[in-house]
Amino acid sequence: xxxxxxxxxxxxxxxxxxxxxxxxxxxxxxxxxxxxxxxxxxxxxxxxxxxxxxxxxxxxxxxxxxxxxxxxxxxxxxxxxxxxxxxxxxxxxxxxxxxxxxxxxxxxxxxxxxxxxxxxxxxxxxxxxxxxxxxxxxxxxxxxxxxxxxxxxxxxxxxxxxxxxxxxxxxxxxxxxxxxxxxxxxxxxxxxxxxxxxxxxxxxxxxxxxxxxxxxxxxxxxxxxxxxxxxxxxxxxxxxxxxxxxxxxxxxxxxxxxxxxxxxxxxxxxxxxxxxxxxxxxxxxxxxxxxxxxxxxxxxxxxxxxxxxxxxxxxxxxxxxxxxxxxxxxxxxxxxxxxxxxxxxxxxxxxxxxxxxxxxxxxxxxxxxxxxxxxxxxxxxxxxxxxxxxxxxxxxxxxxxxxxxxxxxxxxxxxxxxxxxxxxxxxxxxxxxxx
Amino acid sequence: xxxxxxxxxxxxxxxxxxxxxxxxxxxxxxxxxxxxxxxxxxxxxxxxxxxxxxxxxxxxxxxxxxxxxxxxxxxxxxxxxxxxxxxxxxxxxxxxxxxxxxxxxxxxxxxxxxxxxxxxxxxxxxxxxxxxxxxxxxxxxxxxxxxxxxxxxxxxxxxxxxxxxxxxxxxxxxxxxxxxxxxxxxxxxxxxxxxxxxxxxxxxxxxxxxxxxxxxxxxxxxxxxxxxxxxxxxxxxxxxxxxxxxxxxxxxxxxxxxxxxxxxxxxxxxxxxxxxxxxxxxxxxxxxxxxxxxxxxxxxxxxx
Lengths: 435, 304
Known about the structure:
- The structure holds two protein chains of two kinds.
- Chain A is an alpha/beta fold.
- Chain A is built from 18 helices and 13 strands.
- In chain A, the strands form four sheets. A five-stranded mixed beta sheet of chain A has the order 2-1-3-12-6. In chain A, strands 8-9-7-10 form a four-stranded mixed beta sheet.
- Chain B is an all-alpha fold.
- In chain B, helix 1 (11-45) runs antiparallel to helix 13 (272-297) and helix 12 (255-263) packs antiparallel against helix 13 (272-297).
- The longest helix of chain B has 35 residues, at 11-45.
- Chain B is flat, with a radius of gyration of 25 Å.
- The two termini of chain B are 23 Å apart.
């Protein structure tokens, strides 16, 4: 940790000298920190990336430019994913960084605990040199779907990377030239493939979250957005009696009983079946859009990555899953202002587009084209309303209430009706101990 | 130990007594600061509802009541006990059988290294290897297919993951404990075995009447080590059950996993109080087991 700190200081000192700012003095012991008047200042950043990851390189390049242009001193620690475990104790000890980043589901615990700053002023700020506000370039639909913090606000994250869960397939596959637009068409296609002795869906049966994504979508398609969220919140468990839930579960049962799933899916370990899918042994795979880069070296050279969300069942309810990765500022940050200035700066097209061109991910700016393999995902995200997976239900609810029963349904051990009954029972048990 | 009149003690004993505290105190302070204080802090935290960041709210024994009611904690505790008892019995049974063979075989140093090897391999490797070896068209099923098995078992089905985890633990631990026990067995004078052989003792009788009694102290230590380590099993659970997102299925959770998911949840407020309570319950469990084990295994040392 020492080396980057020292070099950052050296760099900042150099910049200060070059711009001939009279910044000496400042806060006594801390040598070389520029005065924090308007521009300049300093902040610390704990990154979820390790220094050698593409996202780290993109962010580092932007930080370097930001430091040079504004005279702000940025101290970065490339923590990697461990930042998740480190941030809580750091906040408790009042030693939190001024800025950190992670997925919205990892940041939300700090927001729900009232420990994430409201970034409304970042969204109201101008993207430097573009004459537009941050809120003009980041569609509000991605933020409005997020869980609200203790004060009822959900602007506790500034996303720079978007992931969506979709059904991925090879668009160059002649069998899949005409992707289904409705659930009926999807089942028809599965039947056609079955007649040709091809599996319709690949699935690593040991994964709960990934496999539940399909049912999570179907519940929205059949019952409208926010349904699962309401079920979770109703402590009585009556939500599970909603006939629409059974209807969605029946569609899952149909997938299992219809013989559309890849052989051996219930007896393998991730990523066995995903790899088979990448070799063309099954048509579709439900997963987060990171799967495109996971299989990049496995797919044949003529593979063209395509994706569709779970098709609508009865028209309407076309919400697309949106997973946000972004920056957040702890409420107790000591230097929030310079950190927030950097956030607006990072949203500049010339900075953010490198998340697409170099880190190969979708950005929240619709005017930055996604990398080729994620074009269809970006189009789905732009064209449809956004939603949070499982309506942002606590991870614990998935682990304890939904997944145990769901995996039995998915492995063909119980019927859809038994699934609903088991989930309801676990739901009642959950609320006895939660909260 | 007679608390005798100090004047009757020899000069050496008096010196020893004088040096007792200066030598023990630093260790005691370290132990207190590094172990007892954190345990005390955890015990205190377990009485509160705390998100790990903001204010703590008094909850009394509420967290312990939740643990009692939560079926997931019951599963986790049961799994930990299964590892401790079943895994432990199998590990030590195999270790004894191995000492039986190893003592008398040629190239035993080489064999010992081979046995110890799994212990050096990162648990990550086992997760990946198991996924390959036991996959539906992996090597195991291919061999079974040659043997005419049409429908091989679903090795990696969710119900089988926990037994697989226990098997992996046994496999890695056996070499470790065999090595320790063998070090003790090597100290047993060979003439005892020679005499037993002359009198016609079978290998089994030699194990029962010579090897086990004379390495008993080491076996006791090994049993305690196993108890302590089995309560910490965590990364194997994480590796065997899941991909990038989400946790392993609750069927495979141990108390350590329960503590982790309570302290670092997704999309909900962390429950540090509950996590501390769960950690303390498992600590109490180890403590109790260790005490029981020591009580059961207590023997007068045999001089030889």
